Amino acid sequence: MKKNLLKSFGITITIILITFLLLGIFPFGNRSMVIIDSNTQYVTFLTYLRTILLGQNNFKYTFSSTLGQNMIPLIGYYLMSIFNILVIFFKPENMKILITILMILKIGLCSTTMEYYLSKKYHKNTLLFSICYGLMTYNIVYMYHIMWFDSIILFPLVILGIDKIFSNKSPLLYIISLSLAIIFNYYIGTIICITSVLYFIYKYIFTHNKINKFKVITEYLLTSLLSGMISAFILLPSLLGLMNGKLMNNPVKFGFYTTYTNIIAKAFTASVGVNETWHGGPMIGASMLIFILVILYFFNKKITKKEKIINAISLFILATTFTFKPLCLLFHGLTEPNCFNYRHAFIFVFFTITLAIRSYNKNEYSKKTYQNVKYILIILSIIILLSNFKFNQTTYNISIIISIILGLLYIDKLQNKKTIIYLLLIDLFINTFANVTMLKLSDKQYMNEYKNYVKNTNEAVEAIKDDTFYRIEKTFDRETNKKMLAINDSMIFNYNGISHFDSTSSLDIENLFEQLGQRKLLTRVYYNNSTYLLDSLFGLKYILSNTEYKNYDLIKEVNNIKIYENPYYLSLGYSIKNKNIELSNNPFINQNNIIKAFTGLNEDIFKEAKYKVEY
After folding, report:
1. Of the candidates 470, 472, 469, which has an alpha carbon nearest to the alpha carbon of residue 461?
2. 155 closest CA partner among 216, 119, 196, 198
3. Which of 126, 228, 346, 529 measures 20 to 30 Å from 178, CA to CA?
4. pTM value?
5. pLDDT tens, position by position, 95-145
């Protein structure tokens, strides 16, 4: 088993590295897979975590986010991975290197824990299927969501722990793995908790006549509760911190997200289209071998009719969690995702892999059965083609043709294990290559540009010598014509700022800034060339700009970055006349009301201009 654990890890990361090599992605090129949210959020939060671990900042509270923010929910959601301790060895400009290492490492470990689970439960032919878990479409398309992977790594161990409870063995594995799954990322941990309950019911249906019911149920409930208590130190403060944010404004919606036909389409190889990285899926592909073996499973005469019926119902229920909105929202903590839909898709993949390995290990099918499965594959492929689902658009539906060819070859060569191994490696490589290509097209990021940007901007920030409390903002982004890549730069450069983007921030503060005329998008707050009044009220003393900015004092220029000092800024605290302010949807009226309330003067700063529209 030890050899297979190493093989599963080695083969998985080798396929990823070969893909990176061919596409010129770091460490074999300048292109970066630190994209989308990992580029705007994770790299900045990891850089800030480094300052916490080095004793430069406090883990409980930060002023590097809007007007100040409780750090515990942010840490609980983004930064609890044990691997994050490695940040202390990487300078801010090299943080993308660490994230790339963590991507590859964690995907490899997904295969390793799956191999451990399969070897304990199914004993033979496990290596093929463990690699399918590591290189499933979900892991490749979402490889930059490194914060999710610790819990996905632990998921097979959670299921194995439940099996041990039913086998009257020690529940320690279940307690440890579930506790850590919640601690490392409570979002994915919550999905695993829900799945734990479903799997317990599933397992109970099969074994209720063979177990001590009271003992098994009691032990499961108590150990689950114990896992919740162990993880409560981060779970409770995180959830309490979210009460002013996303948890408070999410009514349950009814209706349907997608179709069952689309779910089948997404099980094909290379079935992810351009821009589906944000709004697509469900990402349930895990090779055409899994697809074919799941179909064959229901033709297998060695498997009882009862087992087939139960697993068919289970498969349908899991598929329905993608289609039916209330069930999908349940797996997302009753919160509608802004993007990256169907985040629980790895559960579906895990279940199909367990069906596939049972199908493969009981591989005695007639020629007629093989022929019927071929017909099913071809008919489903035609339906998918006619339905115009999003596929890998760079290959113009060649991915569907490739999936048909691979499926037919799997059926013909299923008795030849050596050929199946080669086919599977080709299949997984094609899927990995296609999906990474989609990521590369979706967000073009480069390692050297980021490194130079961080170095140059950091030198400008460090040129400010001031021991008082103040805030800094920037008027430029990391790239020309971009508006949000640098939204969390205050956490990279360790200054007190306004702009911020994370999923745990206060909704009240976001709404306040919007009412004052600053841009708000979802959970993002932007500093948008603010007014003199807001700059002063919020203590913005220094502005970094690559152009002239207002009539503030230009005090320095470092690396072509102009440093302006606001002579009108106010300190962190100041006395006001009246705190009762009525806010409307007009930011100019709101700012007038604020200055009237604060000063007691009855005079407007902003006056409505008369204008005429001519057609």
Report:
1. 472
2. 196
3. 126
4. 0.94
5. 999 999 999 999 999 999 999 999 999 989 999 999 999 999 999 999 999
